[in-house]
Amino acid sequence: MSIAAQQSGPPAWRVLLGHVRPHRWALVGGASLSLLTGATGLMLPLVARDLIDDLSHDRAVTGALVLMSALVMANAALGALGSYVLRRTAESVVLGARRSLSSYLLRLRITAVDRSEPGDLMARVTSDTTLLREVTTDSLVGLGTGGLTLVATLVLMGFVDPVLLGVTLAVIAGAGTVLTLIVPHIGRAGRRAQDAVGVMGASLERVLGALRTVKASGAEPREERALHEAAEESWRQSVRAAKWSAAAGNTAGLAMQVAFITVLAVGGARVATGAIDIGTLVAFLLFVFYLMMPIQSVVAAITRYRAGSAALDRIQEALRLPAEPAAGPAALPAPGAAPAALAFEDVRFRYADDLPYVHHGVTFTVPARGMTAFVGPSGAGKTTVFSLIERFYDPDSGTITLDGRDLADWELSRLRSSIGYVEQDAPVLSGSLRDNLLLGNREADDDEVARVVRTARLDALVARLPEGLGTLVGHRGTKLSGGERQRVAIARALLRRPRLLLLDEATSQLDAVNEAALRDTVADVARTTTVLVVAHRLSTVTTADRIVVMDAGRVRAVGTHRELVTADPLYAELAATQFLTAAG
Ligand code: ADP
Ligand code: MG
């Protein structure tokens, strides 16, 4: 499901004002400078009229010339300052939107992430926000200053000659009618163009994330077509928007030419009849010329707004995705270091309303301390148990308690700070090995890091890497093997000094020697911490204090290895096949 399918919110202009509000005074300052620029420009025709007047009466023109040069220079200086202030403010609006979007995306509920394309979300932060720049300067300011300048110019023109003003207004009204037909097309094309950029981001993310598989499958041509198709769609829609924008801009330009010619004709006739003098006609024609700029900025404001409102919509859609609450005051006192006790009580859960239930009433209790193992066929719902404990999702019914308190009562960050979680296929993030470990606990000192490195049996790897813990790993550096990645993830989780340690198939890729060593480590940790492990290989859990056998979203049996081998046929079968394989 695309997030574009979300319900619609407030109109784009209101959203825009929300983004702009923190910068309103800078914007007003910049706009005032633009207005002053316009005003100095507007005075030129009046001075020109005096100049012509002086000339025709054989008077000295020095004063008028000096005034004109001063105006021209002031016009240039104010114009430069104004456009700098406006551009700077617009960039601040973009910055604000990027900051709030990135903070928001980090707080997204996992459910929201499950249903979105990360590449598309990325495009909303990077690409859509840039459009806010134009919307702010060109639309908001353009409409404000252009509109004011337009009105002021028209008023001045009315003083110069009301009849010629009437002629001008008639032409403008005609152009306005044409524009109302053109503008909606720009909005639609703009939205489609931005959506296509989102699709492209999504495809890129998909392909680059699995480039090895794409290459190994010889799927490049197919993926290339998909990427090109998205790029071309963005091109098509942008060209369409450009076509309508050009039409709008030229309608305004054409209207001004028509106004100029009409004013020249009507004004010429009026000069001939002596209704006005030639200086008045020249001044009026100059005004028509000066009308061009505000009219064009009003038209640009409207067209930009239509294109930019698409980006605003896309930004707002992302900001409406369900998110976790921002960290608030803690409802509960800070957890101590004591190991946690956990209980599932008749938990029913499905990942989405249109998906089947994954947990059909899961019940088990885990006392503080000791190791509890979860075993069962893949798809049984073991990983889901851990996801629910981390509150990536909330159960549909039933309760989960930590230390006797409902998980929903814990402040999320406090809950998660109690837990060390090694997810199935835990990734190594790009950055140094040390960064990867400190992700779990930024405050850990060097001794502590050295200790978990030894505990997780990473010391040989660290010694071998060219820059030890400082070596870049992950995307931008040394790639680690599956088993090395797993040990990094375990070290990261241990560094959190968790009260509850969740290991989801965390040693599945280790060699026998390392696995046996880590089994001892985990048994050691379990003396002071509550440890939950999901293990595919039963050999790793035979010594667990209790084993929870899960199948198809239900708990079949709970007991020790010895009890279950006789009490539970599924477990007995798993044990038999695996130990046979191991022995063979
Ligand atoms: P296990 O860890 O025991 O192999 P999981 O808990 O990962 O099983 O998955 C249980 C079921 O839930 C599977 O059928 C799986 O397809 C489904 N499932 C897991 N994660 C998601 C998800 N994010 N969205 C939808 N379905 C999911
Ligand atoms: Mg799993």
From TrEMBL:
Keywords, alphabetical: ATP-binding, Membrane, Nucleotide-binding, Transmembrane, Transmembrane helix
Top-rank taxon, per record: Bacteria
Domain ABC transmembrane type-1: 28-307
Primary localization class, coarse: membrane
InterPro entries named in the record: AAA+_ATPase (IPR003593), ABC1_TM_dom (IPR011527), ABC1_TM_sf (IPR036640), ABC_transporter-like_ATP-bd (IPR003439), ABC_transporter-like_CS (IPR017871), P-loop_NTPase (IPR027417), Type_1_exporter (IPR039421)
Membrane-spanning ranges: 25-48, 60-86, 140-157, 163-183, 244-266, 278-302
Classification via Gene3D superfamilies: ABC transporter type 1, transmembrane domain, P-loop containing nucleotide triphosphate hydrolases
GO CC annotation terms, alphabetical: plasma membrane
GO MF annotations, alphabetized: ABC-type oligopeptide transporter activity; ATP binding; ATP hydrolysis activity
Pfam families: ABC_membrane, ABC_tran
Cross-referenced SMART domains: AAA (SM00382)
Keyword Nucleotide-binding: yes
Domain ABC transporter as annotated: residue spans: 342-577
Compartment(s): Cell membrane
Record's bilayer topology term: Multi-pass membrane protein
PANTHER family per UniProt: ATP-BINDING CASSETTE SUB-FAMILY B MEMBER 10, MITOCHONDRIAL, ATP-DEPENDENT PERMEASE MDL1, MITOCHONDRIAL
Protein name in the entry: ATP-binding cassette, subfamily C
Taxonomic source organism: Streptomyces prasinopilosus
Lineage: Bacteria, Bacillati, Actinomycetota, Actinomycetes, Kitasatosporales
